[in-house]
Amino acid sequence: MEPFRTHTGRMAVLDWSDVNTDLIIPARYLKRIERIGYGPLLFADKRYVPGGAPLPDEPENAGEYDPDFPLNRPEYRGATILVVGPNFGCGSSREHAVWAVHQAGYKAVIAPVPDEGFADIFEGNSLNNGLLVAEIAESDWKNLVSLGQGSPSTEITVNLETQQVYYPADGHMAQASFSIPESARHQMLNGLDSIGITISDNGLAIDTFEKTRPAWS
Amino acid sequence: MSATLFDKVWSRHVVSQTDEATLLYIDRHLVHEVTSPQAFDGMRLANRKVRRPELTFATPDHNVPTVNQLEIRDALSRRQVETLRNNCKEFGITLLDIGSGRQGIVHVVGPELGLTLPGLTMVCGDSHTSTHGAFGALAFGIGTSEVEHVLATQTLWQGRKPKSLGVEVTGMLAPGLEPKDIILAIIRQIGTGGGTGHVMEYYGPGIRALSMEGRMTICNMSIEGGARAGMIAPDDVTFDYISSIDRQYAPRGVTLEAAIADWRTLITDDDNGFDRKIHIDASKLVPQVTWGTNPGMTVDITGVIPQPHEVPFATADDARRSLEYMGLTPGTPISEVPVDVVFIGSCTNGRIEDLRIAAKVMKGRKVAEGVQVLVVPGSEKVLAQAVAEGLDKIFSEAGAEWRQAGCSMCLAMNPDKLKPGQRSASTSNRNFEGRQGPGGRTHLVSPSMAAAAAVTGRFTDVRTLLA
Ligand code: SF4
């Protein structure tokens, strides 16, 4: 995976609560066996005008954008930071949801309230793919939502080294902290392959553990 | 020191530990066709082998048609199932294939084949892996990168250890009420994010009184409350289920006896040891029906569609979007809402007991005019058992469609789908927008409530039909 240290970019805002993975990527697209090509499928049933969602095997061949869907605001084109509501990514374990967000060009996703911003499996999947998911205090999140909706050309910075989001507020730079488990942070900062690390660092421990497993297991 | 069931199973599987992460050993890895192809690709690219193929079991379920199962017409679905077959062959994994007598929804076949046992850690690239926690296993859903990690290492990294949430269920269910009503009521109480970061343990006399099927229904939907997993301490009901002769992979004889002696220790020592606790009285429940677009948006069958500002855990805007999508007007009694389709099946309610309950309501009655009713056994074994008991005939005579095993209309990946605007009464677990087909409107209910809707054509308090 690509290392992630810090990223500066514009925001796109979708402040709905409980956005589930079926909404992020509908089940029919899960028939694909590839790991790429999911960008155009993000929010497929919301993003395109009725009938415009692409077929699973032709993701590039999509219809017009639906102007009513918040992420389709023309000012959001090229945004690389997605600001979302609480409990984002609830529902199924499909990693395709993370692939879709990431491959649509977002490098980081920001949600309100530590421990409640992202559903557990979505959060784990994101970190395994180098997509940064940051849960920040609700007051800061509200500032980002108004900033992203009111002045979408504003750039903010998400820094994994300092675990801070930096955003302009009243002529200075405000900051909002977030926290990523240390092992995941280390892996993301260095773009490491977790299987390789597990085998090299823990291969022996796994061998030893296996000798103690009960007969019935 | 006092420990919870979850603590005990967790600590038995710690391979190594750092300050903020734990490497857990995984005892069983279940695989289905949807979330595994990219993981096997990764294994091939890195030239890796599956570490413990004999602890890994696969079955096709999501894409499988329920009419003429062997003939998968959709080219992408066929390719995905074929890919699973090829991967299992290449990596030496047991495939419970269509027509083998053992195929079915991954969370139905695991327990019935004796793969699911107390005290195990179990994972699958599927969020409803929480189902297996009904046996006192620590079972949870993982993403495809993690599937690859487990295939290669038989272990999984866990960040912060989840907290525990004790759910005490007292009181017995009244006639017409089911375990599904218990879990819908719990999610309604805590919200769909209420269990995030937690493992839930269900306990108390209301849980002890339930069969394994009922316990699985409850643990299945733990993820709908946001929990990482759901667990129930094993007891004699569990041990009887595992001892049944047809649990092909379960231990036998002295090994089983030794195992049971050990499993009896898998209990929470003190329920004050939970990080959080909630309580529900099962005897006070009324049949539950979801009205909205997440499983926390639920009313009693005797209730009305809520006003947007009355909806807990949702902003008025979120609630308005749900009402609009569902085509419902606040103030309408839920019992006046008509249905187009009834779906009885899924890993929540597609087991033999669920079919028996639905058949009891439908026996001697007819499906209401204009309603399509699908009854889909969760596995080939459930299908065979139902046929042996004559349940298929009861459904067919009532005018329902008796189908073959698979995920079916739980999600729109196979030919069974709602058409835009159609409204279903469904025994599955998710009422998300488009879950059963783009534009489809899903209401989650118990099997008996689904059967009641089938014969009356609208949401109906099943207690009035049992009298
Ligand atoms: S029945 Fe539904 S919830 Fe269960 S595994 Fe299949 S698709 Fe998932």
List the helices and strands and how they pair.
The complex is a heterodimer of chains A (about 220) and B (about 475).
Chain A (H helix, E strand, L loop, with lengths): L5 E9 L6 H4 L19 H4 L33 E4 L11 H8 L4 E5 L7 H9 L3 E5 L1 H13 L4 E5 L4 E6 L2 E6 L4 H9 L3 H18 L6
Chain B lengths: L4 H7 L2 E4 L4 E4 L2 E4 L5 H9 L10 E3 L16 H17 L2 E2 L10 H7 L8 E4 L13 E4 L2 H10 L1 E4 L4 E8 L8 H12 L7 E6 L1 H4 L3 H9 L8 E3 L4 H8 L9 H11 L12 E6 L6 E3 L7 E3 L15 H11 L14 E4 L1 H4 L2 H11 L9 E4 L4 H9 L2 H8 L2 E2 L20 E4 L14 E4 L2 H10 L6 H4 L1
Parallel strand pairs in B: 3-4, 3-6, 4-5, 6-7, 9-10, 9-12, 10-11, 15-16, 15-18, 16-17, 18-19
Antiparallel strand pairs in B: 1-2, 2-8, 13-14
The structure holds iron/sulfur cluster (SF4).
Describe the 3D structure.
The complex is a heterodimer of chains A (217) and B (467). Chain A has 217 residues and is of the alpha/beta class. The longest helix of chain A is centred in the C-terminal third of the chain and has 18 residues. Chain B is built from 17 helices and 19 strands. Chain B starts with a helix and ends with a helix. In chain B, a hairpin with a 7-residue loop joins strand 13 and strand 14. Chain B has 467 residues and is of the alpha/beta class. At the A-B interface, helix 4, helix 6 and helix 7 of A face helix 2, helix 3, helix 5, helix 10 and helix 11 of B.
